[in-house]
Amino acid sequence: MTRRPTPDVKPRYCTPRNPDRVTDGPREACIAEALGTPFLPWQRLVSDVFGEIDPDTGTYWYDTLVLTVQRQAGKTTRERACETRNALWGPNRRVWYLAQTGKDASEQFREYTTQFNKSLLAPLARQVRLSNGSMCLTLRNGSTIRPGGTTDSTGHGFQGDSLTLDECWALPADTAKSILDGFLPTTTTRMKLTGVRPRITFCSTEGTAKSTFFNPKLDELRARMDAGDDLGRTCFVDFGIPFGSDPEDLDNIWSHHPGAGWLFDFDQLRDFRDQFGDDAAGWARAFGNIRDTGIVERAIDAALWEDTTGPVIAPASAGRLCFGVAVAMGGTGTAIVACIDTDGPPVVQVVDVLPGIGDAPQRLRELQDTYHAPICIDRRGPSAALADVLANSVDDFDAPRYQLADLKPADAVTAPQAFLSMLEQHAVLHAPDRQLDHEAGIAAKRMSGDAWLWSRKPESNAPTVEAATLALWGYTHMDDDAPPRIW
Ligand SMILES: Nc1ncnc2c1ncn2[C@@H]1O[C@H](COP(=O)(O)OP(=O)(O)OP(=O)(O)O)[C@@H](O)[C@H]1O
Ligand SMILES: [Mg+2]
After folding, report:
1. Tens of pLDDT along 15-51?
2. Residues with CB under 5 A from ligand 2 (ion)
3. Which residues line ligand 1 at a C-beta cut-off of 6 Å?
4. Which of 9, 60, 140, 153 shows a CA-CA span of 20 to 30 A to 280?
5. Torsion over CA: 439, 444, 449, 451 (sign)
6. How far is residue 435's CA from residue 222's CA, in Å, rounded to a whole number?
Protein backbone atom coordinates (compact mmCIF):
# COMPACT_ATOMS: atom_id res chain seq x y z
CA MET A 1 0.00 0.00 0.00
CA THR A 2 1.48 3.33 -0.96
CA ARG A 3 0.47 6.18 1.21
CA ARG A 4 1.04 9.81 0.65
CA PRO A 5 3.23 11.61 3.17
CA THR A 6 1.29 13.29 5.92
CA PRO A 7 1.20 16.87 4.75
CA ASP A 8 2.86 19.22 7.16
CA VAL A 9 3.98 16.88 9.96
CA LYS A 10 3.88 18.98 13.10
CA PRO A 11 6.88 18.95 15.43
CA ARG A 12 6.24 18.50 19.15
CA TYR A 13 8.22 21.66 19.78
CA CYS A 14 9.62 24.20 17.37
CA THR A 15 11.10 27.63 17.78
CA PRO A 16 8.76 29.76 15.68
CA ARG A 17 10.04 31.39 12.53
CA ASN A 18 10.43 35.12 13.06
CA PRO A 19 9.17 36.73 9.85
CA ASP A 20 10.93 40.00 10.67
CA ARG A 21 14.25 38.36 9.93
CA VAL A 22 15.40 37.18 6.55
CA THR A 23 16.80 33.68 6.49
CA ASP A 24 19.66 31.83 4.91
CA GLY A 25 17.42 28.74 4.64
CA PRO A 26 16.83 29.14 0.88
CA ARG A 27 20.61 29.13 0.27
CA GLU A 28 20.98 25.91 2.26
CA ALA A 29 18.09 24.52 0.24
CA CYS A 30 19.97 25.36 -3.00
CA ILE A 31 23.02 23.54 -1.72
CA ALA A 32 20.87 20.55 -0.73
CA GLU A 33 19.47 20.48 -4.24
CA ALA A 34 22.92 20.75 -5.78
CA LEU A 35 24.02 17.79 -3.63
CA GLY A 36 21.16 15.77 -5.11
CA THR A 37 19.00 15.67 -1.96
CA PRO A 38 16.55 18.56 -2.22
CA PHE A 39 15.17 19.37 1.21
CA LEU A 40 12.10 17.60 2.53
CA PRO A 41 9.63 20.04 4.13
CA TRP A 42 10.89 19.39 7.67
CA GLN A 43 14.53 19.84 6.63
CA ARG A 44 13.65 23.16 5.05
CA LEU A 45 11.71 24.24 8.14
CA VAL A 46 14.75 23.66 10.35
CA SER A 47 17.09 25.48 7.97
CA ASP A 48 14.70 28.41 7.66
CA VAL A 49 14.41 28.96 11.41
CA PHE A 50 18.00 28.18 12.39
CA GLY A 51 19.20 30.17 9.37
CA GLU A 52 17.54 33.42 10.45
CA ILE A 53 19.77 36.44 10.01
CA ASP A 54 20.17 39.13 12.63
CA PRO A 55 19.17 42.37 10.87
CA ASP A 56 21.64 44.38 12.98
CA THR A 57 24.74 42.35 12.22
CA GLY A 58 23.93 40.53 9.01
CA THR A 59 25.03 37.23 10.51
CA TYR A 60 23.16 34.25 11.95
CA TRP A 61 20.76 35.06 14.77
CA TYR A 62 21.01 31.65 16.47
CA ASP A 63 24.23 30.12 17.70
CA THR A 64 22.81 26.77 18.83
CA LEU A 65 20.47 24.23 17.28
CA VAL A 66 19.04 21.39 19.31
CA LEU A 67 17.33 19.07 16.88
CA THR A 68 15.72 15.77 17.78
CA VAL A 69 14.02 13.68 15.11
CA GLN A 70 13.25 10.01 14.58
CA ARG A 71 15.65 7.58 12.89
CA GLN A 72 15.87 7.61 9.11
CA ALA A 73 14.31 11.01 8.69
CA GLY A 74 17.18 12.75 6.94
CA LYS A 75 18.99 14.37 9.87
CA THR A 76 22.51 13.64 8.67
CA THR A 77 21.60 14.57 5.09
CA ARG A 78 20.32 17.96 6.24
CA GLU A 79 23.49 18.55 8.22
CA ARG A 80 25.58 17.98 5.11
CA ALA A 81 23.83 20.74 3.19
CA CYS A 82 24.03 23.01 6.19
CA GLU A 83 27.76 22.40 6.71
CA THR A 84 28.52 22.86 3.02
CA ARG A 85 26.70 26.17 2.98
CA ASN A 86 28.55 27.25 6.10
CA ALA A 87 31.91 26.46 4.49
CA LEU A 88 30.92 28.50 1.43
CA TRP A 89 29.92 31.57 3.43
CA GLY A 90 33.45 33.00 3.34
CA PRO A 91 37.14 32.16 3.06
CA ASN A 92 39.03 29.89 5.42
CA ARG A 93 36.08 28.71 7.46
CA ARG A 94 36.44 25.70 9.78
CA VAL A 95 33.58 23.25 9.80
CA TRP A 96 33.42 20.07 11.88
CA TYR A 97 31.13 17.08 11.69
CA LEU A 98 31.33 14.86 14.77
CA ALA A 99 29.75 11.46 15.19
CA GLN A 100 29.88 8.99 18.03
CA THR A 101 33.20 7.45 17.04
CA GLY A 102 35.85 8.54 14.59
CA LYS A 103 34.91 5.51 12.52
CA ASP A 104 31.25 6.54 12.25
CA ALA A 105 32.24 10.07 11.34
CA SER A 106 34.73 8.85 8.72
CA GLU A 107 32.12 6.63 7.09
CA GLN A 108 29.67 9.50 6.91
CA PHE A 109 32.42 11.72 5.58
CA ARG A 110 33.35 9.27 2.81
CA GLU A 111 29.72 9.16 1.72
CA TYR A 112 29.57 12.93 1.84
CA THR A 113 32.66 13.44 -0.30
CA THR A 114 31.37 10.92 -2.85
CA GLN A 115 28.10 12.82 -2.99
CA PHE A 116 29.97 16.12 -3.24
CA ASN A 117 32.27 14.94 -6.03
CA LYS A 118 29.36 13.73 -8.10
CA SER A 119 27.39 16.93 -7.61
CA LEU A 120 27.29 20.30 -9.32
CA LEU A 121 29.47 21.56 -6.50
CA ALA A 122 32.44 19.35 -7.41
CA PRO A 123 34.39 22.18 -9.08
CA LEU A 124 34.42 24.04 -5.74
CA ALA A 125 36.70 21.43 -4.14
CA ARG A 126 40.43 22.04 -4.03
CA GLN A 127 41.45 18.82 -2.33
CA VAL A 128 39.86 15.77 -0.69
CA ARG A 129 41.97 13.85 1.81
CA LEU A 130 40.60 10.50 2.90
CA SER A 131 43.44 9.08 4.97
CA ASN A 132 42.40 8.24 8.50
CA GLY A 133 43.22 10.89 11.04
CA SER A 134 43.54 13.73 8.56
CA MET A 135 40.34 13.44 6.55
CA CYS A 136 39.45 16.79 5.09
CA LEU A 137 37.58 18.42 2.27
CA THR A 138 39.29 21.69 1.37
CA LEU A 139 37.32 24.08 -0.81
CA ARG A 140 38.78 26.57 -3.25
CA ASN A 141 37.99 29.38 -0.80
CA GLY A 142 40.28 27.75 1.77
CA SER A 143 37.42 26.51 3.98
CA THR A 144 37.66 23.01 5.39
CA ILE A 145 35.07 20.43 6.38
CA ARG A 146 36.41 17.69 8.66
CA PRO A 147 34.98 14.70 10.49
CA GLY A 148 35.79 13.73 14.06
CA GLY A 149 34.73 11.26 16.73
CA THR A 150 33.32 12.50 20.00
CA THR A 151 34.41 9.53 22.06
CA ASP A 152 38.02 9.78 21.00
CA SER A 153 38.24 13.54 21.25
CA THR A 154 40.80 15.23 23.44
CA GLY A 155 38.45 18.10 24.06
CA HIS A 156 40.51 20.79 22.40
CA GLY A 157 40.41 19.48 18.88
CA PHE A 158 37.31 21.05 17.47
CA GLN A 159 37.63 24.79 17.14
CA GLY A 160 36.11 26.77 14.35
CA ASP A 161 32.93 28.16 12.86
CA SER A 162 30.51 25.29 12.81
CA LEU A 163 30.36 22.19 14.93
CA THR A 164 27.78 19.46 14.42
CA LEU A 165 27.42 16.73 17.02
CA ASP A 166 25.42 14.04 15.24
CA GLU A 167 23.83 11.20 17.27
CA CYS A 168 24.63 13.11 20.44
CA TRP A 169 22.36 10.83 22.49
CA ALA A 170 25.50 8.70 22.80
CA LEU A 171 27.48 11.47 24.47
CA PRO A 172 28.12 11.18 28.19
CA ALA A 173 27.77 14.54 29.95
CA ASP A 174 31.47 14.83 30.78
CA THR A 175 32.58 14.24 27.18
CA ALA A 176 30.08 16.82 25.94
CA LYS A 177 31.43 19.26 28.48
CA SER A 178 35.02 18.83 27.38
CA ILE A 179 34.05 19.30 23.72
CA LEU A 180 32.09 22.44 24.51
CA ASP A 181 34.84 23.75 26.78
CA GLY A 182 37.19 23.48 23.81
CA PHE A 183 34.84 25.03 21.25
CA LEU A 184 32.85 27.76 22.98
CA PRO A 185 35.60 30.05 24.29
CA THR A 186 37.03 30.40 20.79
CA THR A 187 33.74 31.46 19.22
CA THR A 188 33.98 35.11 20.28
CA THR A 189 37.31 35.61 18.55
CA ARG A 190 36.12 33.70 15.48
CA MET A 191 33.07 35.94 15.25
CA LYS A 192 35.29 39.04 15.43
CA LEU A 193 37.63 37.64 12.82
CA THR A 194 35.06 36.38 10.32
CA GLY A 195 31.96 38.48 11.05
CA VAL A 196 29.92 35.30 11.00
CA ARG A 197 28.44 33.88 14.20
CA PRO A 198 29.86 30.42 14.96
CA ARG A 199 27.18 27.77 15.39
CA ILE A 200 26.84 24.48 17.16
CA THR A 201 24.27 21.82 16.31
CA PHE A 202 23.18 18.98 18.58
CA CYS A 203 21.36 16.54 16.41
CA SER A 204 19.98 13.19 17.49
CA THR A 205 17.16 10.78 18.01
CA GLU A 206 16.05 10.56 21.66
CA GLY A 207 18.43 8.48 23.70
CA THR A 208 18.52 6.01 26.52
CA ALA A 209 19.11 6.18 30.26
CA LYS A 210 22.79 6.60 29.36
CA SER A 211 22.22 9.86 27.47
CA THR A 212 23.42 11.95 30.37
CA PHE A 213 24.07 14.96 28.15
CA PHE A 214 21.08 14.93 25.79
CA ASN A 215 18.26 13.91 28.18
CA PRO A 216 18.61 16.85 30.58
CA LYS A 217 19.09 19.21 27.62
CA LEU A 218 15.81 18.10 26.02
CA ASP A 219 13.97 18.10 29.35
CA GLU A 220 15.14 21.62 30.05
CA LEU A 221 14.20 23.01 26.64
CA ARG A 222 10.76 21.39 26.66
CA ALA A 223 10.05 22.70 30.15
CA ARG A 224 11.18 26.18 29.18
CA MET A 225 9.04 26.18 26.05
CA ASP A 226 6.08 24.94 28.09
CA ALA A 227 6.66 27.84 30.44
CA GLY A 228 6.73 30.28 27.51
CA ASP A 229 10.42 31.18 28.04
CA ASP A 230 12.39 32.81 25.27
CA LEU A 231 15.26 30.41 24.49
CA GLY A 232 17.56 33.25 23.43
CA ARG A 233 20.02 32.16 20.77
CA THR A 234 19.02 28.52 20.95
CA CYS A 235 16.78 27.14 18.23
CA PHE A 236 14.89 24.00 19.28
CA VAL A 237 13.10 21.56 17.01
CA ASP A 238 11.61 18.32 18.29
CA PHE A 239 9.75 15.80 16.12
CA GLY A 240 8.14 12.62 17.45
CA ILE A 241 4.86 11.02 18.42
CA PRO A 242 2.98 12.86 21.19
CA PHE A 243 4.20 11.90 24.67
CA GLY A 244 2.02 9.17 26.11
CA SER A 245 0.59 8.14 22.71
CA ASP A 246 0.84 4.60 21.40
CA PRO A 247 4.06 3.76 19.51
CA GLU A 248 2.55 0.45 18.36
CA ASP A 249 -0.08 2.33 16.39
CA LEU A 250 1.57 2.59 12.96
CA ASP A 251 -0.82 5.34 11.87
CA ASN A 252 0.37 7.35 14.84
CA ILE A 253 4.01 6.82 13.80
CA TRP A 254 3.20 7.61 10.17
CA SER A 255 1.54 10.89 10.91
CA HIS A 256 4.39 12.13 13.13
CA HIS A 257 7.48 10.91 11.27
CA PRO A 258 8.60 13.71 8.95
CA GLY A 259 10.32 11.28 6.56
CA ALA A 260 7.26 9.03 6.18
CA GLY A 261 6.09 8.84 2.61
CA TRP A 262 9.20 10.66 1.39
CA LEU A 263 11.92 8.25 2.39
CA PHE A 264 9.90 5.06 3.03
CA ASP A 265 6.35 3.88 2.46
CA PHE A 266 3.80 2.35 4.80
CA ASP A 267 4.68 -1.25 3.97
CA GLN A 268 8.30 -0.57 4.80
CA LEU A 269 7.18 0.89 8.11
CA ARG A 270 5.57 -2.45 8.95
CA ASP A 271 8.80 -4.22 8.02
CA PHE A 272 10.80 -1.85 10.20
CA ARG A 273 8.47 -2.67 13.11
CA ASP A 274 8.92 -6.39 12.55
CA GLN A 275 12.67 -6.02 12.56
CA PHE A 276 12.49 -4.71 16.12
CA GLY A 277 10.65 -7.85 17.30
CA ASP A 278 10.29 -7.88 21.09
CA ASP A 279 12.22 -4.67 21.47
CA ALA A 280 9.19 -2.41 21.88
CA ALA A 281 11.19 0.29 23.63
CA GLY A 282 13.80 0.30 20.87
CA TRP A 283 11.04 0.69 18.30
CA ALA A 284 9.36 3.51 20.22
CA ARG A 285 12.66 5.31 20.37
CA ALA A 286 13.71 4.84 16.74
CA PHE A 287 10.42 5.62 15.03
CA GLY A 288 8.47 7.46 17.74
CA ASN A 289 11.41 9.41 19.15
CA ILE A 290 10.41 8.38 22.65
CA ARG A 291 13.28 8.00 25.10
CA ASP A 292 14.18 4.43 25.93
CA THR A 293 14.69 4.61 29.67
CA GLY A 294 15.14 0.89 30.01
CA ILE A 295 11.63 0.30 31.34
CA VAL A 296 10.55 -2.99 29.88
CA GLU A 297 6.96 -2.78 30.94
CA ARG A 298 5.12 0.44 31.52
CA ALA A 299 2.62 0.21 34.35
CA ILE A 300 -0.04 2.22 32.52
CA ASP A 301 -0.91 0.78 29.15
CA ALA A 302 -0.45 3.34 26.35
CA ALA A 303 -3.84 2.68 24.77
CA LEU A 304 -5.56 2.94 28.15
CA TRP A 305 -3.84 6.23 28.83
CA GLU A 306 -4.94 7.61 25.48
CA ASP A 307 -8.51 6.37 25.96
CA THR A 308 -8.80 8.06 29.33
CA THR A 309 -7.81 11.51 28.09
CA GLY A 310 -10.33 13.98 29.46
CA PRO A 311 -11.08 17.66 29.07
CA VAL A 312 -8.94 20.52 30.33
CA ILE A 313 -10.85 22.19 33.15
CA ALA A 314 -10.62 25.98 33.28
CA PRO A 315 -9.71 27.10 36.82
CA ALA A 316 -12.75 29.36 37.00
CA SER A 317 -15.14 26.48 36.45
CA ALA A 318 -13.43 24.01 38.82
CA GLY A 319 -15.92 22.69 41.37
CA ARG A 320 -15.23 20.36 44.28
CA LEU A 321 -11.63 19.23 44.16
CA CYS A 322 -8.65 17.85 46.04
CA PHE A 323 -4.95 18.54 45.49
CA GLY A 324 -2.32 15.80 45.37
CA VAL A 325 1.31 16.73 45.96
CA ALA A 326 4.45 14.68 45.32
CA VAL A 327 8.12 15.59 45.50
CA ALA A 328 10.46 14.13 42.89
CA MET A 329 13.32 11.91 44.04
CA GLY A 330 16.15 14.10 45.29
CA GLY A 331 13.79 17.03 45.87
CA THR A 332 14.37 18.30 42.34
CA GLY A 333 10.74 19.28 41.84
CA THR A 334 7.26 19.32 43.34
CA ALA A 335 4.24 18.20 41.36
CA ILE A 336 0.80 19.56 42.24
CA VAL A 337 -2.16 17.86 40.61
CA ALA A 338 -5.87 18.51 41.21
CA CYS A 339 -8.61 15.91 41.02
CA ILE A 340 -11.67 17.85 39.93
CA ASP A 341 -15.37 17.04 40.03
CA THR A 342 -17.13 17.24 36.65
CA ASP A 343 -20.50 16.20 35.22
CA GLY A 344 -18.77 13.01 34.07
CA PRO A 345 -15.94 11.17 35.83
CA PRO A 346 -13.54 13.28 37.90
CA VAL A 347 -10.53 14.63 36.01
CA VAL A 348 -6.94 14.78 37.28
CA GLN A 349 -5.14 17.83 35.98
CA VAL A 350 -1.61 19.11 36.56
CA VAL A 351 -1.71 22.46 38.32
CA ASP A 352 1.99 23.15 38.67
CA VAL A 353 5.36 21.47 38.59
CA LEU A 354 7.64 23.62 40.72
CA PRO A 355 11.43 23.45 40.61
CA GLY A 356 12.65 22.14 44.01
CA ILE A 357 10.40 22.28 47.08
CA GLY A 358 11.09 25.76 48.50
CA ASP A 359 8.18 27.49 46.78
CA ALA A 360 5.67 24.71 47.40
CA PRO A 361 4.24 25.84 50.78
CA GLN A 362 3.49 29.32 49.47
CA ARG A 363 1.96 28.01 46.24
CA LEU A 364 -0.18 25.51 48.14
CA ARG A 365 -1.43 28.24 50.44
CA GLU A 366 -2.52 30.30 47.47
CA LEU A 367 -4.28 27.30 45.96
CA GLN A 368 -5.98 26.43 49.21
CA ASP A 369 -7.10 30.03 49.70
CA THR A 370 -8.59 30.07 46.22
CA TYR A 371 -10.18 26.64 46.08
CA HIS A 372 -10.78 25.72 49.74
CA ALA A 373 -9.69 22.19 48.90
CA PRO A 374 -7.75 19.63 50.94
CA ILE A 375 -4.20 18.53 50.09
CA CYS A 376 -3.17 14.89 49.94
CA ILE A 377 0.52 14.18 50.43
CA ASP A 378 2.54 11.10 51.41
CA ARG A 379 4.10 11.57 54.86
CA ARG A 380 6.90 9.19 53.91
CA GLY A 381 9.43 9.02 51.06
CA PRO A 382 10.73 12.08 49.18
CA SER A 383 7.66 14.16 50.14
CA ALA A 384 8.21 13.65 53.89
CA ALA A 385 10.03 16.92 54.55
CA LEU A 386 7.42 18.99 52.71
CA ALA A 387 4.59 17.05 54.37
CA ASP A 388 6.06 17.87 57.77
CA VAL A 389 6.26 21.55 56.96
CA LEU A 390 2.61 21.54 55.90
CA ALA A 391 1.44 19.48 58.87
CA ASN A 392 3.24 21.63 61.43
CA SER A 393 2.44 25.00 59.99
CA VAL A 394 -0.02 27.05 62.04
CA ASP A 395 -1.63 30.44 61.56
CA ASP A 396 -1.69 33.38 63.97
CA PHE A 397 -4.41 31.66 66.01
CA ASP A 398 -2.42 28.43 66.30
CA ALA A 399 -4.82 26.64 63.95
CA PRO A 400 -3.41 24.32 61.27
CA ARG A 401 -2.59 26.38 58.20
CA TYR A 402 -3.12 23.58 55.72
CA GLN A 403 -6.09 21.26 55.40
CA LEU A 404 -4.47 17.86 54.82
CA ALA A 405 -6.26 14.69 53.74
CA ASP A 406 -5.89 11.94 56.31
CA LEU A 407 -3.71 9.57 54.26
CA LYS A 408 -2.40 6.73 56.44
CA PRO A 409 0.69 4.71 55.43
CA ALA A 410 -1.60 1.76 54.65
CA ASP A 411 -3.64 4.00 52.32
CA ALA A 412 -0.52 5.17 50.50
CA VAL A 413 0.16 1.56 49.60
CA THR A 414 -3.27 0.94 48.08
CA ALA A 415 -3.67 4.30 46.34
CA PRO A 416 -1.66 3.41 43.16
CA GLN A 417 -3.70 0.25 42.57
CA ALA A 418 -6.91 2.20 43.16
CA PHE A 419 -5.78 4.84 40.65
CA LEU A 420 -5.01 2.26 37.99
CA SER A 421 -8.27 0.36 38.57
CA MET A 422 -10.29 3.54 38.25
CA LEU A 423 -8.46 4.39 35.02
CA GLU A 424 -9.27 0.92 33.70
CA GLN A 425 -12.94 1.50 34.46
CA HIS A 426 -12.72 4.99 32.94
CA ALA A 427 -13.92 6.18 36.33
CA VAL A 428 -11.24 8.88 36.31
CA LEU A 429 -9.88 10.86 33.35
CA HIS A 430 -6.73 12.96 32.93
CA ALA A 431 -6.44 16.34 31.28
CA PRO A 432 -3.77 16.35 28.55
CA ASP A 433 -0.44 17.54 29.92
CA ARG A 434 3.02 17.04 28.49
CA GLN A 435 4.72 16.17 31.77
CA LEU A 436 1.95 13.89 33.00
CA ASP A 437 1.70 12.15 29.62
CA HIS A 438 5.44 11.63 29.54
CA GLU A 439 5.54 10.26 33.07
CA ALA A 440 2.56 7.99 32.43
CA GLY A 441 4.76 6.44 29.74
CA ILE A 442 7.65 5.71 32.10
CA ALA A 443 5.85 5.03 35.39
CA ALA A 444 6.72 1.57 36.67
CA LYS A 445 5.68 -0.56 39.63
CA ARG A 446 7.77 -1.62 42.59
CA MET A 447 6.50 -4.25 44.96
CA SER A 448 5.85 -3.43 48.60
CA GLY A 449 4.67 -6.55 50.42
CA ASP A 450 1.65 -7.79 48.53
CA ALA A 451 0.87 -4.39 47.05
CA TRP A 452 2.79 -2.20 44.68
CA LEU A 453 3.88 1.42 44.67
CA TRP A 454 5.12 3.76 41.97
CA SER A 455 8.80 3.13 41.34
CA ARG A 456 11.09 6.04 42.19
CA LYS A 457 14.12 4.90 40.24
CA PRO A 458 15.60 7.76 38.20
CA GLU A 459 14.43 6.29 34.89
CA SER A 460 10.86 5.78 36.08
CA ASN A 461 10.38 8.52 38.67
CA ALA A 462 6.96 9.97 37.95
CA PRO A 463 6.02 12.58 40.56
CA THR A 464 3.08 13.97 38.56
CA VAL A 465 1.60 10.45 38.33
CA GLU A 466 2.16 10.07 42.05
CA ALA A 467 0.51 13.44 42.70
CA ALA A 468 -2.42 12.45 40.46
CA THR A 469 -2.74 9.20 42.42
CA LEU A 470 -2.88 11.11 45.70
CA ALA A 471 -5.27 13.73 44.34
CA LEU A 472 -7.68 10.98 43.35
CA TRP A 473 -7.31 9.22 46.69
CA GLY A 474 -7.97 12.45 48.55
CA TYR A 475 -10.89 13.25 46.28
CA THR A 476 -12.57 9.87 46.79
CA HIS A 477 -12.09 10.16 50.57
CA MET A 478 -13.34 13.70 50.93
CA ASP A 479 -16.04 14.25 53.46
CA ASP A 480 -19.21 14.90 51.49
CA ASP A 481 -20.79 16.98 54.16
CA ALA A 482 -17.81 18.40 55.93
CA PRO A 483 -18.84 21.28 58.15
CA PRO A 484 -18.15 24.60 56.49
CA ARG A 485 -14.77 25.95 57.41
CA ILE A 486 -13.93 29.54 58.03
CA TRP A 487 -11.19 30.78 55.70
N1 LIG B 1 16.18 15.37 1.13
C2 LIG B 1 16.43 14.11 0.80
N3 LIG B 1 16.26 13.70 -0.47
C4 LIG B 1 16.51 12.41 -0.81
N5 LIG B 1 16.94 11.47 0.03
C6 LIG B 1 17.13 11.82 1.30
C7 LIG B 1 16.87 13.15 1.77
N8 LIG B 1 17.13 13.19 3.07
C9 LIG B 1 17.52 11.95 3.42
N10 LIG B 1 17.53 11.12 2.37
C11 LIG B 1 17.87 9.69 2.36
O12 LIG B 1 17.19 9.04 3.42
C13 LIG B 1 18.03 8.12 4.10
C14 LIG B 1 18.15 8.52 5.54
O15 LIG B 1 18.75 9.79 5.64
P16 LIG B 1 19.77 10.15 6.79
O17 LIG B 1 20.82 9.13 6.93
O18 LIG B 1 20.18 11.56 6.56
O19 LIG B 1 18.76 10.09 8.01
P20 LIG B 1 19.08 10.13 9.57
O21 LIG B 1 17.89 10.78 10.18
O22 LIG B 1 20.40 10.74 9.81
O23 LIG B 1 19.07 8.58 9.88
P24 LIG B 1 19.75 7.81 11.13
O25 LIG B 1 18.92 8.14 12.32
O26 LIG B 1 19.63 6.40 10.75
O27 LIG B 1 21.15 8.32 11.24
C28 LIG B 1 19.35 8.16 3.36
O29 LIG B 1 19.38 7.12 2.41
C30 LIG B 1 19.35 9.51 2.67
O31 LIG B 1 20.11 9.52 1.49
MG1 LIG C 1 22.12 10.03 10.76
Report:
1. 999 999 999 999 999 999 999 999 999 999 999 999 9
2. 75-76
3. 37-40, 43, 71-77, 205, 263
4. 9
5. positive
6. 9
